[in-house]
Design a protein that fits this description.
This protein is α+β, with helices and mostly antiparallel strands. The chain has four domains: 3-176, Beta-Lactamase; 199-211 and 346-445, Beta Barrel (Elongation Factor Tu (Ef-tu), domain 3), CATH 2.40.30.170; 212-243 and 309-345, RNA polymerase II/Efflux pump adaptor protein, barrel-sandwich hybrid domain (OB fold (Dihydrolipoamide Acetyltransferase, E2P)), CATH 2.40.50; 247-307, Helix Hairpins, CATH 1.10.287. 38% of the residues lie in helices and 30% in strands. It has nine helices and 20 strands. Strands 6-15-19-17-16-20 form a six-stranded antiparallel beta barrel. The chain has a five-stranded antiparallel beta sheet with strand order 2-1-5-4-3, sandwiched between helices. It has a four-stranded antiparallel beta sheet with strand order 7-14-12-9, with no helix packed on it. InterPro entries: UPF0194_transport. It comes from Victivallis vadensis. It is found in: Cell envelope.
Length: 446
């Protein structure tokens, strides 16, 4: 053996060692497979090469020479897979030509294949897959290739099986442990967040009202003749706001007076006759009873006339039930019908209905801040006046506690009836309590 041959063999052996070292240091299995196919050309001088994985009788292309990523659906890959599935490989490299079984579609352009089975390392447990390395040459396989590929296959096999099994398994375990740690940290953070105390806030709509509201009702059944005050006007206590139609009342009083005078005349006559005839005393007593009844009718008619004028019960702003004086005039009313209200007092108050499901904020010291729909950017502080002792059924068919508050530093231009959103801020409670409470109320309402 000459020095040149020895130098060439040593160089080739060094390349094999570096080649195997690079495969072991690859980032993952697919990178190692690509390196095994592409970096070996310097030693084996093939025309093209393909690495396949055979499992359960089915072959799949893993890496192809000259491609950064294999294309298992290409025509060449499909043909090579069918060819690999039909091979009966021994441990030694096998040369396949058109004469000894290479399919015609792969034997084009004088192609000859060197097929190598990459055996798993001896200390590795039995696997359910096998790597097959197909090397394509033109016309014939060089004489040095079988021995060289046999030596190279040992290093390639160990690296590929290591990347495929051991390193992948270690990475899966590491990834699993890492995920468990991450989930543990997340769950611990969530559990800790449940104990973070935040202010208990409740929002509800409110309506601006007068501090004192006095209502006026119909005294008796009848027809309202006219309304003397328009909605929104200011009146004083005792001012007449509306009047009944008194014509029928006057007729009733006139008839009662006539009946009373008639009974009194008959009674006077019978009393004179009773002085001479004692049998008339019974008739006198009957007429006296009729006289008393007639007096009651007169007094009743007088009461109706005296109450035909409906006066303002307090000083303030009139709010008609029908909104307009023209609608109240000529209206037939029944006893107890609300005719109007008087808004009195200084300042304004807000009435806040708090749903009983959110009423826990009322059990402790809380603050109220108002935000009008017309000026949502302005916060209006409020002073709590009273809280109802029991919930009331509202128009929305919910039971609510009524909270009355007085506006402090109210802006100018407020009008009765304005609406907005009230925020009731109570003490600090854990987030877990809020979430648990909301969940229970939600599922209970389903």
């Amino acid at each position: 053996m000459t020095n040149e041959e020895l130098s060439a063999r040593l160089k080739a052996f060094a390349l094999m060692l570096k080649y195997g070292h690079d495969l072991f240091g690859a980032g993952d299995f697919m990178d190692a497979a690509a390196l095994a196919v592409n970096n070996s050309r310097q030693l084996l001088n093939f025309r093209t090469a393909t690495l396949l994985e055979l499992a359960g009788g089915k072959a799949c292309v893993i890496a192809q020479y000259g491609l950064a990523e294999a294309n298992p659906h290409s025509q060449l890959a499909v043909r090579q897979c069918r060819f690999a599935e039909s091979l009966q490989l021994a441990d030694e490299p096998q040369t396949v030509t058109r004469e000894n079984g290479l399919p015609d579609e792969l034997a084009e352009h004088d192609a000859v294949y060197c097929c190598v089975k990459l055996r798993p390392p001896a200390n590795l447990e039995e696997t359910d897959f096998t790597f097959i390395w197909l090397l394509e040459y033109e016309k014939s396989v060089p004489p040095y290739v079988p021995n060289t590929v046999k030596l190279l296959a040992a290093s390639v096999s160990e690296a590929l099986y290591y990347q495929r099994l051991c390193k992948s398994r270690f990475r899966r375990i590491k990834r699993h442990v890492k995920k468990r740690w991450i989930w543990g940290v997340v769950l611990a953070a969530l559990a800790g967040a449940m104990f973070v105390r935040v202010p208990e806030n409740v929002t509800a709509e409110f309506t601006l009202k007068a501090p004192e509201i006095t209502s006026a009702y119909a005294w008796f059944d009848g027809l309202i003749a006219k309304c003397l005050v328009q909605d929104g006007e200011t009146v004083k206590r005792g001012d007449v706001v509306a009047e009944y139609d008194t014509e029928q009342l006057a007729y009733r009083l006139s008839g009662a007076w006539s009946a009373l005078r008639e009974v009194e005349a008959e009674l006077a006559l019978e009393q004179q006759n009773a002085f001479t005839d004692e049998t008339r005393l019974g008739q006198v007593r009957l007429l006296e009873a009729r006289r008393d009844t007639a007096k009651v009718a007169v007094e009743e008619a007088q009461w109706y006339l005296e109450h035909s004028e409906i006066a303002a019960p307090a000083e303030g702003i009139v709010a008609l039930a029908d909104d307009r004086a023209e609608l109240l005039a000529g209206k037939a009313v029944r006893t107890g019908d609300k005719l109007f209200e008087i808004f009195g007092g200084n300042g304004m108050v807000a009435e806040i209905p708090v749903d009983e499901r959110e009423a826990s904020v009322l059990s402790q010291h809380f603050r109220v801040t108002l935000f009008l729909h017309t000026a949502p950017e302005t916060a209006i502080p409020a002073e709590i006046l009273e809280i109802s002792h029991y919930p009331e059924l509202t128009e929305q068919k919910t039971y609510c506690y009524k909270v009355r508050v007085k506006l402090q530093n109210a802006p100018a231009g407020l009008r009765y009836g304005m609406r907005g959103v009230a925020r009731l801020s109570g003490g600090r409670v854990p987030i877990g309590y809020r979430l648990f409470k909301s969940s229970v109320l939600y599922f209970r309402g389903m």
